[in-house]
Amino acid sequence: MQRYQRQIAAGKSITHWSDEAPTATAAERYRAVEANWTSFQRIGTDAKGWLAAADGTMQSMSSLMTRVKEIAVSSQNGGLSDSSRTALADELDQLRTELRDMGNTEHLGRSLFGGFGAKALATSSTGVVTYSGDDGQVSRQVSPTITLGVNVTGASSGDDIFGFGKGPGQDAFSLLRTLSTAIRAKDSATVSATQDGIQARHSDILRGLAKIGTSTNRVETAYAAGDVALQDLATSRSVLEDVDLAKAVLEMNSAQAGYTAALGAAGRANLPSLADFLH
């Protein structure tokens, strides 16, 4: 009867391992697997943070490159005044600085596009931008079977999103500088020559975005599977551990009635008989 009282008070069918050792062992196994999945879900949340940061920054890079292409086309208008050309070139210089700053974006204190390097991009005293990171892949295990990279890099041996591996003068920053100089000098031939390179660098960024999108979909799928797994595990463990309150109350009342009847029978068995009085 005390066992039933403990079960009702705790809401659990197993309050001591001695109550039902095999069932308690099975419940602990479920709890251990739940802990693993909870860890994967936490890692998945971190992975989604990395991917979201990269996606947002690279979307801005893509918009910036779209504007660069618009400027290149506009600068070919023979009717532009010198002041208009200067304004377009100045805007390009500003966009180049913004692209560099985006490239040095950090997430949780780490370089988003520099691999394991402290910083993705470095700028010399003459304004030349170079890649200072590496091709390190930030990996996250988001399920028992899925481990994936959650970053893209500017390394020529990696994702090369800035085009540093495409040859001298073909990275995005060199092309923007060349384009700005050509616009100021009214050098239409050079402006035309840089447009293919600008389009190629934009394509590199879009390719990086596609990689981020694919990884995001995989993480989201794994995260959803983790939610289902945790719900199923919790349900299975509940079947083993949680008490059926109505059944427990009924069994306790039955045990209480049996106990009371036994006490009554014992009491009647010990009553003095007529023979005891006559003695």
SSE topology:
Blueprint lengths: L1 H9 L10 H54 L7 H22 L2 E2 L2 E2 L9 E3 L5 E3 L7 E3 L5 E3 L22 H13 L3 H54 L3 H25 L4 H5 L1
Antiparallel strand pairs: 1-2, 3-4, 5-6
Helix pairs in contact: 1-6, 2-3, 2-5, 3-4, 4-5
Walkthrough of the structure:
The structure is a single chain. The chain has about 280 residues and is mainly alpha-helical. The protein is about 65% helix and about 5% strand. It has seven helices and six strands. It has helices at about 1-10, 20-75, 80-105, 170-185, 190-240, 245-270, 275-279, and strands spanning about 105, 110, 120-125, 130, 140, 145-150. The strands form three sheets. Strands 1-2 form a two-stranded antiparallel sheet. Strands 3-4 form a two-stranded antiparallel sheet. The protein has a two-stranded antiparallel sheet with strand order 5-6. α1 runs antiparallel to α6 (about 245-270). The longest helix has about 55 residues, at about 20-75. The radius of gyration is 36 Å and the shape is elongated. The protein starts with a helix and ends with a helix. The mean pLDDT is about 85.
Quick summary of this structure?
With 279 residues, this protein is mainly α. Helix content is 65%, strand content 6%. Strand 1 and strand 2 form a beta hairpin.
